[in-house]
Structures are given as structure tokens and as C-alpha cells.
Amino acid sequence: MTTNHLTAAQREASALFLEGQGWGYGGQVDVDPIDPWNVRGRYGWVGGTGTAAHVIPPTGTVTVLLTQVAMTSPTPTTLMREFWASAAGH
After folding, report:
1. Can you tell me the distance from the alpha carbon of 51 to that of 82, in angstroms, rounded to the nearest whole number?
2. Which of 13, 57, 72, 76 is the most interior residue, by most CB within 10 Å?
């Protein structure tokens, strides 16, 4: 469930939405560390209503962000990015 099941071609075609992630059964999985918070093996979900939850097994960390600010594009909001950077210690 927490392993990427997309092919390289599928990930490339969906790069705008994935940003270094793949897709397991039911959630996003970090594959490429393109941002400081991307850790291989991190998995979770980013919801369009401003919520996000991730489990990061390599660091033993769980992050949960609950907002009421809907996403207006496929790119995570600045708040989400700042939250993830803070949780990653950056």
C-alpha cells in the first residue's frame, strides 16, 4: 500500500500533480527527494480542502495539517510547503 505503483511514464505525464511522488494503493508515496520534505518512503494524502497527513517511517514522524483554505491549483499551498519544511527541520 505504501509503495509506488506508477510507471516512469505515468509519473512523467503527471509531474505537475505529483512533484516527485508516485502513487500506492490509496495514497501518495515520495519517490524523488525534489524538496527538503520529500523523504523516500513518506506516504500520505493531500486533500483539496487544505488538509494533509503523512507518515514518514525513516524518521518516525507523523504530520497532520488541518486548514480551511481550499487549494486552487494542483500545486500545494505555501502554507503546506512551509509546514512540511518545518516538520522536516528546514
Report:
1. 14
2. 76
DSSP 54-79: EEETTTTEEEEEE-S---SSSSPPHH
Contact yes or no for 50/70 (Cβ under 8 A): yes
CB-based contacts of 60: which residues, under 8 Å, 6+ apart? none
Residues in a beta bridge with 51 = 47, 66
The Cα–Cα gap between 69 and 90 comes to 23
Q: Which grid coordinates belong to 80? A: 503546506
Sheet with 28-30, side-by-side order of all strands: 21-23, 28-30, 43-47, 51-56, 61-66
Mean pLDDT of 27-35: 89
pLDDT at 85 over 80: yes
CA 24 to chain centroid, in Å, comes to 12
Q: How many CA atoms lie within 13 A of 10 on its CB side?
A: 8
